[in-house]
Amino acid sequence: MNLSMQGWQDILKKSITRADDIPGYFGSDVSGIDRAAQVFPMRINPYYLGLIRKKDDPLWKQAVPSLEELQDDVCFEDPLNEENLSPVPNLIHKYPDRVLFLVSSQCAMYCRFCTRKRKVGTDRMVITRETVAEGIDYIRSHPEIRDVLISGGDPLLLTDERLDEILSAVRAIPSVEIIRIGTRVPCTLPMRITVRLARLLKKFHPLYINTHFNHPAEITPEAAQACTRLADAGIPLGCQTVLLRGVNDDSLVMRELMHRLLRIRVRPYYLFQGDMTRGTNHFRTSIATGKEIMKSLIGYTSGLAVPMYALDAPGGGGKIPLMPDYVSEDGERLIFTNYRGKTCFYESVR
């Protein structure tokens, strides 16, 4: 299939949403996929499907439903307590000076590890012009809010015109200093990042985009072109990677991912410990695994390639850094171990 000649909306319309539509050459268990997809919706667009090389490879695991999603009796539907931190629908006010503003209920692909898999892509996530207007009114009436993160779903699945309306309304609020967009389309549907869209977004500086790549195989020429268009529009790009068992819980894979991100002008920003979201327990690794991966990055590659390893605390507690421990103190001096394991000392200031 030649995707280069098709518009992004046409590609999205051809997405797989039923287990029976998964190509037979994968040799997959359609019945198990179908049972999981009835609870947690599936959408795999032709672009991302074309990146999957075989059943159960790292990209398959991110995209294709699994019976393991229905066997999770550990995790929670709303692990970050977002519903109770929403003063108005689809707006989460967890931190004093910033809010998360959900403006889309759809994604180009429904990731199997999604924090909001309880509702994204379902009729349980209702976003209308009225709810968006209510969110904008809330931001306007709370001048302590200086930073607005626009997310969803994926806000870049909105039309250019609707996105322009929302961004214009937020940018017109005097107290809002920074607008951020959280989107996975540079990874999952990079043809959405058109020249026209990049030109539109450029109007709203200071504007930042955090995107989401989890494996080196996701960084394709199409993804590189999408990120180049955004970077050339003066938009700083960061990546929020999720640590996923069987996908990227390997030091060499993670290092290669970080290097490739920098080559397409995306700064590794966060490496997240998997949220305790119902249906995702099979993806979660130990924190010790994450710390070992961080040790394989710190000192062994450029600091630009080292993200912050963090956990978003259950119950809405916020992000907790989980970096490796290198330092202790004996009262007179700091004792630390460098990345090669050598013990060093630093005299305390008296």
Task: Write a concise synopsis of the structure shown.
The chain is an alpha/beta fold. Helices cover 28% and strands 17% of the residues.
CATH architecture: Alpha-Beta Barrel
In total, the number of domains comes to 1
Reading the helices and strands in chain order gives HHHHEEHEHEHHEHEHEHEEEEE
Tell me about the largest β-sheet: 9 strands, mixed
Over all CA atoms, what is the radius of gyration?
21 Å
**How would you state the average pLDDT, rounded?**
95
Portion of residues in helices?
25-40%
CATH classification, class level? Alpha Beta
Structural class: alpha/beta
Cross-sheet strand order for the largest sheet: 1-2-3-4-5-6-7-8-9
CATH topology: TIM Barrel
Topology:
Elements: H1 8-13, H2 30-39, H3 46-49, H4 58-63, E1 91-95, E2 98-102, H5 129-140, E3 147-151, H6 160-171, E4 178-182, H7 185-188, H8 195-201, E5 207-211, H9 221-232, E6 237-242, H10 251-263, E7 267-272, H11 287-297, E8 308-313, E9 318-321, E10 327-329, E11 333-337, E12 343-347
Parallel strand pairs: 2-3, 3-4, 4-5, 5-6, 6-7, 7-8
Antiparallel strand pairs: 1-2, 8-9, 10-11, 11-12
Helix pairs in contact: 10-11
How would you describe the overall organization of this protein?
With 350 residues, the protein is of the alpha/beta class. The protein has one domain (68-327): Alpha-Beta Barrel (TIM Barrel), CATH 3.20.20. It is 28% helix and 17% strand. The protein has 11 helices and 12 strands. It has a 9-stranded mixed β-sheet. The longest helix is centred in the C-terminal third of the chain and has 13 residues, at 251-263. 39% of the residues are buried.
